[in-house]
Write a structure and sequence with these properties.
By secondary structure, the chain is mainly alpha-helical. It is built from 23 helices and no strands. Helix 4 (60-73) runs antiparallel to helix 15 (261-295), helix 5 packs antiparallel against helix 6 (94-110) and helix 6 (94-110) packs antiparallel against helix 12 (177-195). The radius of gyration is 22 Å and the shape is globular. It starts with a helix and ends with a helix.
């Protein structure tokens, strides 16, 4: 298959996406076109669709989505917010910082960005508005905090990357711990700067209130420890941990008496819809990856970039520019599925660690959740607002985007910060 033909398919794919054809269908159409043009057996296309889904690890993605939805409906998000507010709600901008803090905790349960923004935003946006926060600021804080759901384990984006790049998901989760913590702190700092002169300080600090909130939210706060601790201690695999997360979410919801059969049915319905969308993308991307490999385009791109420069900073800069542009039109999961088969050979050819790249790539992708016109988190928080429009929220999130990229640059120069825990403990 000629290289030129493969580039034509890439161009057609981009045109289809700009025409607002759903990404899964766009990838499938291009793959089918390639099979017809080059007279490849159509049975292989069907086979690639099947093999793309035939991974036991893939089961973890819908299970974590289901678990996060159950926990959001089961009262965990409210208790996490109450504990966070008791700890840091007394400082200027404390409610905004509480929102980021709560998003970090909920991210360690849900593994998804929009779910984090929705669960925490439904509680915190009305609360911030009642305490004098401008609606656009409250929405921007929540949308930005939601991106932590992409990075902090058990991130479904990291699971997808791990499957496609064939690297250890446990190492990816461990490698995301330090970046996730630093990003949480950075977002809290930005929130403090934005809110300190806008709203007054909250309540006075009370140690008694902290302990009461800690007691009432203890089961919620233990959820990440239970889910991730089992993986790191080798008790169960990421897929098994997703099953345990579902079981834990149901038990906690019943203990709190806030999870009904209707909630479980609603969570299941939401999970099926989300999983169905992802499954179409995933299956179609498997055949598309086959076309790219057969054409030699992935190896040729890797060779071309390596011939220009083997400097990791320059290579990742080029990748970053592409991800920023595509992130405005493709969601994070779509980019990971579409670009990982292309990027992995490039990074392998220059000897860059694929665990470190997976974390950096994920951080690049998470920016897409808060950049228009496709930024999912922007629309999630907009649905929770009464007057603010997308453009106003988009302006608020600009400092958060700059903070994310400042950290990305830091990790590009110091990938050891990502690899420290995996190398030490795994």
């Amino acid at each position: 298959m000629e290289i030129l033909g493969a580039f034509v398919f890439l161009f057609v794919l981009i045109l289809l996406m700009f025409a607002k054809v759903p990404i899964g269908f766009a990838i499938g159409i291009v793959s089918l076109l390639a099979f017809f043009i080059y007279d490849l057996p159509i049975q292989i296309l069907a086979q690639r669709f099947y093999t793309g889904m035939a991974s036991q690890t893939w089961i973890a993605i819908p299970l974590f989505i289901f678990a996060g939805t159950l926990m959001g409906r089961g009262g965990l998000s409210k208790r996490i917010v109450n504990f966070s507010e008791a700890v840091i709600g007394h400082v200027k901008g404390g409610l905004g910082i509480t929102t980021i803090f709560s998003c970090a905790f909920f991210a360690a349960i849900s593994g998804a960005s929009p779910a984090t923004a929705a669960a925490i935003g439904s509680v915190m946006i009305p609360e911030m508005k009642s305490k004098g926060y401008p609606e656009k600021l409250a929405a921007g804080i929540t949308a930005s905090g939601g991106v932590l759901g992409v990075l902090i384990p058990p991130s479904i984006i990291l699971i997808a990357y791990g499957i496609l790049a064939e690297v250890s998901i446990a190492k990816l989760f461990m490698g995301a711990m330090i970046p996730g913590t630093l990003l949480s702190i950075a977002l809290m700092f930005v929130t403090y700067i934005l809110a300190r002169n806008t709203v007054p300080a909250g309540h006075e600090f009370s140690l008694k209130k902290v302990f009461v909130a800690l007691y009432r939210s203890s089961l919620s706060l233990l959820a990440p420890v239970f889910i991730l601790g089992g993986i790191y201690l080798g008790i169960f695999t990421p897929t098994e941990s997703a099953v345990m997360a579902v079981v834990y979410g149901i038990i906690i919801g019943l203990i709190y008496r806030e999870l009904s059969l209707r909630d479980v049915a609603g969570a299941l319905q939401s999970t099926v819809i989300t999983t169905g969308t992802l499954a179409i993308i995933w299956a179609a991307a498997s055949s598309y990856s086959y076309v790219l490999t057969l054409s030699g385009i992935t190896q040729n791109i890797a060779t071309s970039i390596a011939s220009v420069s083997t400097d990791p900073f320059l290579v990742l800069l080029m990748i970053s520019v592409l991800v920023v542009v595509l992130g405005c039109y493709i969601n994070a999961m779509g980019m990971v599925i579409l670009l990982t088969p292309i990027f992995v050979p490039i990074l392998s050819s220059i000897g860059y660690d694929l665990i470190a790249f997976g974390i950096i790539f994920t951080m690049m992708c998470e920016v897409g959740y808060i950049t228009p016109p496709v930024g999912t988190n922007l629309f999630v928080v907009k649905s929770l607002c009464e007057k603010t429009d997308i453009l106003e929220i988009s302006r608020v999130v600009i400092p958060y985007i700059l903070a994310i990229y400042a950290l990305i640059i830091g990790f590009v120069f110091f990938p050891g910060a990502i690899l420290f825990l995996p190398n030490l403990l795994l």
